[in-house]
Design goal:
Number of domains: 1
Largest sheet: 9 strands, mixed
Order of helices and strands: EHEHEHEHEHHEHEHHEHEEHEH
Oligomer: single chain
Bound molecules: beta-D-ribofuranose, calcium ion
């Protein structure tokens, strides 16, 4: 007997496209199990207008132009905008891609998020792959949306080592207050942090094959991967091998069995100084002296990705994008 067909999962991606955000978009729009209801843009890897342009370009190259795209926050809640030069001067690897012919919708990101979340007949999964400014503004402006959010699977944070600073990951470091608002949203949250993010790498011969494809979306995936470093902090020129980066968060929604998670208390350091933007993940096996002396806090539990099946996610990515 054939299995009953599952309906696609309604998802909204909040991104700062971004080389690896582009990889994430290519996967999401081509995965039959995901229904991308909207894409919202926020300042991060580049300025927000550049993010909108890059996002629309990716959708056109992927042959998925109809998804509504909205412009969001120009800068973090408190910090200034600080872009990530690793993504090139246009934020997408300076690949010389054509300007998009479409425009964003005429409402802002928070309005589009609210509208699509509340209009969905089944609860929506949010996939932020960027600083969390838009999501924090949404949660503070329209808290009623949480009743129709199934889960937030965000790329951000790190259990171990940071990248923007020794301890802070870029998306959380860029807007720590926004990340703190997300973590206390009261909805189920999965943290796809640097610990797993950096591990999912597509080997050089496969990237070479993608770059030779006749399909513009597949070719774009290859060119983007060739621009990504294969090792954290490595140079993209070393080899065509490249990490899936943010696309791993989309893999996590499409195939949750590809990651191992642990429910752990997570909070963000908002203090000025060297720990600002660090995600402090409590892995202690028992309460410590602070709790003994009544200093314990009730930190929300987050499903933290602690391991990833690299081959499974690479296979999922290729099977979907090369379809
Ligand atoms: C995150 O920062 C950005 O540069 C990437 O797009 C990713 O979302 C990794 O720290
Ligand atoms: Ca990103």
């Amino acid at each position: 007997m054939s299995q009953p067909q599952q309906s696609p999962i309604p998802v909204i991606i909040d991104c700062d496209t971004g080389v690896d955000d582009a990889l994430a978009l290519l996967l999401a729009v081509r995965h039959p199990g995901l229904d991308v209801r909207a894409i919202t843009c926020v300042a991060g890897n580049t300025d927000v207008d550049g993010v909108v342009r890059n996002t629309l370009t990716v959708l056109e190259q992927a042959g998925a132009p109809d998804i509504p795209v909205a412009r969001g926050a120009e800068r973090p809640l408190i910090e200034p905008a600080r872009h990530a030069p690793v993504h090139g001067s246009d934020g997408m690897g300076d690949l010389g891609l054509p300007a998009p012919s479409r425009r964003p919708v005429d409402v802002d990101a928070v309005t589009l998020l609210r509208r699509e979340i509340l209009a969905s007949p089944t609860p929506v999964t949010l996939i932020p792959t960027a600083p969390l400014t838009n999501i924090a503004l949404l949660l503070r402006t329209h808290p009623e949306v949480t009743r129709n959010i199934a889960r937030i699977v965000f790329m951000g944070g790190a259990v171990e080592v940071g990248n923007a600073t020794p301890v802070a990951e870029f998306n959380v470091w860029h807007d720590p207050e926004a990340a703190a608002i997300l973590l206390t949203a009261g909805v189920p949250i999965t943290m796809y942090g640097l610990d797993v993010f950096t591990r999912v790498v597509v080997p050089a011969p496969t990237v070479h094959r993608l770059r030779a494809s006749r399909d513009p979306g597949t070719r774009l995936a290859g060119d983007l991967l060739a621009h990504r470093p294969a090792t954290p902090g490595g140079s993209p020129d070393d080899s065509e091998a490249g990490g899936l980066g943010d696309a791993g968060a989309v893999c996590t929604v499409a195939d949750p069995g590809g990651v191992t998670t642990r429910a752990l208390p997570v909070e963000v350091s908002l203090a000025p100084g060297p720990t600002r933007g660090q995600t402090i993940v409590d892995r202690r096996v028992r309460p410590g002296e602070a709790e003994h002396h009544g200093e314990g806090r009730t930190t929300p539990l987050v499903d933290v990705a602690v391991d990833v099946d690299v081959d499974r996610f690479v296979k999922l990515y290729l099977e979907t994008v090369e379809r």
